[in-house]
Amino acid sequence: MTMRYTSLGRSGLKVGRLALGTMNFGPLTGEADSHRILDAAMDSGINLVDTADVYGADANRQVYGLEPEKGRTEEIIGTWLTKTPSRRDQIVLTTKVYGAMGPGVNDIRLSARRIRRACEESLRRLGTDHLDVYMLHHVDRSTPWEEIWGALSLLRQQGKVLYFGTSNHAAWHITRGQATAERLGEFGFVVEQSIYSLMQRTVELEVLPACRDMGIGFLPYSPLHGGLLSGILRKHEVERGRAGRAATALRSDRERVERYEKVCDDLGESPSAVGLAWLLHQPGVTAPIVGARTAEQLATALRALEIELDEERMALFDDLFPGPGGPAPEAYAW
Predict the structure, then answer these.
(1) Which residues are catalytic?
(2) Of 17, 228, 282, 304, which is least packed with CB atoms within 10 Å of its CB?
(3) How far apart are CA 179 and CA 146, in angstroms?
């Protein structure tokens, strides 16, 4: 398998067609296993490592009255980088800011104060002096874009961040942010990260068309819909797959999932690899984020890079999991 690379949006930064998501590092995957997954990702050619300051919180800790360990995931990546400092120049490191990292009223959202402090704390946990991409983890309707860009611009001037992106933003949020950046003479965003899979295609209405138009890359997260598209019906151990989003969807979509797994069987490929391959065939998608909990899951995901889906197969998937009907407004108007 040879990794393919592409530009991150309109930037000159090159990233692999699969990205490594690290949200499981800490809560579900211990430090040693997390490091092995990071090693395997690098060996495979994956160079984009995606994390966030709030990652690492384990819900079980709260059950026992303990504080959630937010920031733990960044720390795990930091210890991995410390082992071999040369790794830092070989990866594209991204993290995010927005979620609450403390009890204070200013320990959340995107004020200039919050962005500055959050960036410093992420750099400390990650053990690096700069981030390749710093992403706004959610839209902040209470902070003006001028204030946000003032804080982001300062971080770039200081050499602490090279590029900026968004996550979980609507198309009009991204458009307003880009318009403000252009007015202020800033380069603007180079990437948006949002939920996207065969079973969750809402971004096809406006977010993906907007990103393509503005030269913004797109990183789909939850590309297998919380495990529902990973071969859930054929697995013996499905505890995680039956939790959260997958549990709800499986109750109402079992027949479609059965049909999906049958199509994958006919292709001779794993459902996980096919679900990722479908995303790689979508215009505007830069790299699905693979949240591997084990090295074996990562190896399965890499197979997606070699799967070619013809028009007939793509049409079959559209029939199984219909999208919103195309881009807006044609999807709902003449």
Answers:
(1) 55
(2) 282
(3) 10
